[in-house]
């Protein structure tokens, strides 16, 4: 894994039993560094999508890994929109791509799906077999006939994270609907709602709001970027977030930049009339 790709969620790789080998620096990775790090113990190369141009691009990573018959796994959980990303990473050489079933897909929030090579997806699927599976009647008993497996792997790693039938139906339905959605219309509405928030927060002491598009990572999603000046507002960005969460209705925002005085509001979950509620609540909190 490129050092630039280390993130809060790569613990999932270690839970699966992998040892993470970092390559490169925290500002760049050179091709030879990845090439020399791969050896006979390398199970896969991990790639975190959406980081911009500092790291080695996916196409280069795939080329280096595939020369040594090593698959590339891409974490693309938050990489929708655009819809084209459903196929983009595979076309750039990824062997397995993980997407969230929630977020822009709008399926069950606890669901996700894998795209890629059949054998790798099967390998993941085998991790969720339970004790009610028997060799004689197992739906994958052909794997035993081929000598690939001795029998069903009972209670493997994924058993504790099994997906319910309701979630499967919900996700499949969401994916079918996703292919029919008007993404241009959605983006237009998103921009209108973000602009409502930005316009409504003009001339609020200690606060400066801007309409940002696209995001810093290049995703085609607008956002209201709200800078809180603690010296003028009399409260920090964290204080503002806490007040938003304590109100009725509860308002939850993007918190990761709060330590820098920034509150971000994204439009994916906003409904008609809710931008006005956000503006009114922020004005109440800041006393204007």
Description:
The protein has 288 residues and is an alpha/beta fold. It folds into 2 domains: 3-178, Type I PLP-dependent aspartate aminotransferase-like (Major domain) (Aspartate Aminotransferase, domain 2); 183-285, Alpha-Beta Complex (Aspartate Aminotransferase, domain 1), CATH 3.90.1150.110. It is 34% helix and 12% strand. The strands form 2 sheets. Strands 1-2-3-4 form a 4-stranded mixed sheet, with helices on both faces. Strand 1 (45-48), helix 3 and strand 2 form a beta-alpha-beta unit. The longest helix is centred in the middle third of the chain and has 18 residues, at 183-200.
Detail the topology: elements first, then pairings.
Layout: H1 11-15, H2 31-37, E1 45-48, H3 58-67, E2 72-75, H4 85-91, E3 96-100, E4 112-116, H5 118-125, H6 142-145, H7 165-178, H8 183-200, E5 207-212, E6 223-228, H9 230-233, H10 237-246, E7 262-265, H11 274-285
Parallel strand pairs: 1-2, 2-3
Antiparallel strand pairs: 3-4, 5-6, 6-7
Helix pairs in contact: 8-11
In total, the number of strands is 7
CATH class of the largest domain: Alpha Beta
Q: Give the H and E element order.
A: HHEHEHEEHHHHEEHHEH
Query: pLDDT under 50 segments (min length 5)?
Result: none
CATH superfamily of the largest domain: Type I PLP-dependent aspartate aminotransferase-like (Major domain)
Query: What does the radius of gyration come to?
Result: 23 Å
Characterize the largest beta sheet: strand count, sense, and whether it forms a barrel. 4 strands, mixed
Spatial sequence of strands, sheet with the most strands: 1-2-3-4
CATH architecture of the largest domain: 3-Layer(aba) Sandwich
> What structural class do the secondary elements suggest?
alpha/beta
């Amino acid at each position: 894994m490129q050092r630039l790709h280390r993130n809060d969620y790569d613990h999932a790789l270690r839970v699966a039993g992998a040892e993470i080998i970092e390559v490169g620096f925290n500002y760049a990775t050179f091709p030879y560094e990845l090439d020399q790090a791969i050896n006979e113990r390398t199970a896969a190369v991990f790639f975190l999508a959406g980081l911009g141009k500092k790291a080695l691009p996916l196409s280069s990573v795939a080329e280096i890994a595939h020369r040594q018959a090593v698959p590339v796994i891409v974490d693309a959980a938050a990489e929708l929109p655009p819809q084209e990303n459903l196929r983009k990473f595979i076309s750039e050489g990824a062997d397995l791509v993980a997407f969230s079933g929630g977020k822009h897909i709008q399926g069950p929030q606890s669901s996700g799906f894998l795209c890629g090579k059949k054998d790798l997806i099967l390998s993941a699927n085998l991790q969720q077999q339970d004790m009610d599976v028997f060799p004689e009647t197992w739906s994958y008993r052909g794997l035993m006939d081929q000598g690939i497996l001795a029998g069903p792997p009972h209670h493997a790693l994924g058993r504790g994270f099994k997906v319910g039938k309701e979630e499967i139906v919900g996700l499949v339905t969401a994916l079918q609907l996703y292919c029919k959605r008007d993404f241009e219309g959605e983006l237009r509405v998103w921009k209108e709602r973000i602009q409502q928030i930005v316009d409504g927060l003009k001339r609020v002491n200690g606060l400066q709001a801007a309409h940002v598009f696209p995001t810093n990572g290049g995703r085609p999603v607008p956002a209201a970027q709200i800078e809180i000046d603690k010296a003028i507002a009399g409260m920090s960005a964290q204080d503002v977030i806490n007040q938003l969460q304590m109100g009725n209705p509860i308002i939850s925002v993007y918190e990761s930049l709060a330590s820098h005085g920034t509150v971000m509001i994204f439009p994916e979950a906003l409904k008609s009339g809710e931008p006005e509620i956000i503006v009114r609540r922020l004005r109440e909190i800041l006393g204007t």
